[in-house]
Every structure is written in C-alpha cells, then in structure tokens.
Fold this protein.
Amino acid sequence: MLKKVNPKKKSKLVNILFAGFITGTLDGLAAMILNYKVNPGVIFKFIASGAFGPAAFAGGAEIIVAGVIFHYVIAFSFSAVFFLLYPFFYNGLRNKYFVAVIYGIAAWLIMNLGVVPLSKITTKPGYHIPVSTILSGMLTLVICVGLPVVFIADRENKKIK
C-alpha cells in the first residue's frame, strides 16, 4: 500500500530543490560573468579539481560535467541547510535581508576556509586572497545564495502560518 505524502513536506522539498537550482544557476552564471576572460569550461574544471586535483585541467567534457554536477551538489546542500535554518535565524534577527547577508558570508567562509582547503585544489605556497576578491565573493554569495534562499524560505514559512 502506498503511503500518502504530507503536502507540507512535499512543498518544503519542492522549495528546497527550487532554491538549490536557482542558487546553483545564479552562482554559476556569476562565476562566468566575473571571470568573463576565462572559458566557462575552465571554471567547471577548477571546481572538479577539488575532487580530482590538478589532473582535472587536462580532462575533457567529462570533467566539465563533473564540475557542473559538483557545483550543483554544493549549491543544493547549502540551499537545503540554509532553507531549514531560516526560521531559527529569522526569529532571532527579524530581518530577512540581514539573514541573507549572514547566509552569503557563511557560505563564503565555509567554502573558502573549510571546503577548498580540504579539497585537492592547489594554490601556490603563501598565496593570499586579495581583500577585493573576498568582498566580491561574499557579495556574490549574498546575492546568488542568501537572497534567493531567504525569499523562497520566507514565502514557504508565511504559507505554513
């Protein structure tokens, strides 16, 4: 016998998937726009190099596809966590725009201070990220991750109440 799915749970899952798709697409587009002099394939090979190391840059279309998949998996993961945490942050901060800023900064910090150093992405010894790159990266994630997730989660929470 098939078990009925609670419409509220289904709606939440649909919204999380939608948020992941939107954030992944916006962030990917932002990466291509901000790095317009770089072939988009190289951007996704860079992402794939997190798993495959420098050898990813010698790969072909399969590595680019892997980079796109990794990019969306990360976007869906961040979107799901931020979506589920939204009520907690909103209740504490009472300002969805401030929550979006917190999310964007948190996403940048987690990626650049946690995920990237633990990955196989290589950087030159002593490399430091310029402040302008840090700020533009955080702003990009506020716009491409924080705001969409907050707007979708806020709409979901108002529908439930």
